[in-house]
Amino acid sequence: MAASPKYLTGDREGIKEFIDQFDVFLFDCDGVLWSGDHLFEGTVKTLEILRNKGKQIVFVTNNSTKSRTEYMKKLTNMGIPATVDEVFGSSYSAAIYISRILPLPPSQKTVFVLGEKGIETELDSENVPHIGGTDPSLQRPIEQKDYEEIASGAALDPSVGVVLCGLDFHINYLKIALAYHYLQRGAVFLATNIDTTLPSANALFPGAGTCAAPLVAMMGGKKPTSLGKPSQAMMDAIEGKFRFERKRACMVGDRLDTDIRFGIEGGLGGTLCVLTGVTRAAEEWKGGETVPSFYVDKLGDLRVGV
Ligand SMILES: O=C(O)[C@H](O)[C@H](O)COP(=O)(O)O
Ligand SMILES: [Mg+2]
């Protein structure tokens, strides 16, 4: 049975001990730093304090709609100094998995994308060919000729060896149909992440996992391999890049089944659950398998401890 987590809001001594315990902080983004374009109060100051204390900060997001560069820009525009190197997103994690790890026949290296520009940019950064995604010719209702051409294979690109799903704000019937027929022809089923919901405007909206759900249903429940949190392939890649001692690192997140599980399964020294995103109350982990080691009402509450 996991130890009950330590509540830090208002606990000046507890916050000081918490911060001193770690050298590296892996920060989730949606639901922790901000909700959509709404930056949570105290976020900028808290990160500044951690940097001034010489702490290593890494932004580890499952949101695949933006590339690392686009995230660096969003962070900077929000008043959070950051470099591209400090950002590690699920779209990058998927791109390096496909280009450096996944064995694919030379004739089948193309990825059919169900997702946004962030995935396409990161696949380009790894020279991985891709189709689908933001292709405007797919932003339309399916027509009778599409059924025939997809069923016969005439509309299918024979070099597709992977179907990669992420958060897709432009998902539609035609793209799902194409993805399904590529999977039927043996393409590898991958996802950048499986979050079922996206926190935005202080509410929840369909997430990447929800975008992949029609394919999971059509595939008789077969789930994609996910390269975002809690995947330990992502943790190994982050550790390999930033070279830190796991026991001196803390994962800060708002979601139990991705962020907190990621930290626990990664053997990190601690996990901090922030109650401004998907998880809203301690009750949500009570009696559950995934229990954080610390929790706080909002990230900005940490700044009182220094
Ligand atoms: O549906 C999604 O893709 C997720 O809700 C979103 O991406 C979560 O991002 P994170 O909280 O990991 O920054
Ligand atoms: Mg989050």
UniProtKB/TrEMBL annotation:
One of its GO terms (cellular component) is cytoplasm. Its EC number is 3.1.3.41. SUPFAM superfamilies: HAD-like (SSF56784). It is an enzyme of class 3 (hydrolase). Keywords: Hydrolase, Magnesium, Metal-binding. Coiled coil: none annotated. Pfam families: Hydrolase_6 (PF13344), Hydrolase_like (PF13242). GO terms for molecular function: alkaline phosphatase activity; metal ion binding; phosphoglycolate phosphatase activity. It comes from the Eukaryota. Substrate binds at residue 229. It catalyses: 4-nitrophenyl phosphate + H2O = 4-nitrophenol + phosphate + H(+). Mg(2+) binds at residues 28, 30, 254. The active site is at residues 28, 30. Its cofactor is Mg(2+). Divalent metal ions. Mg(2+) is the most effective. This is 4-nitrophenylphosphatase. It comes from Cladonia borealis.
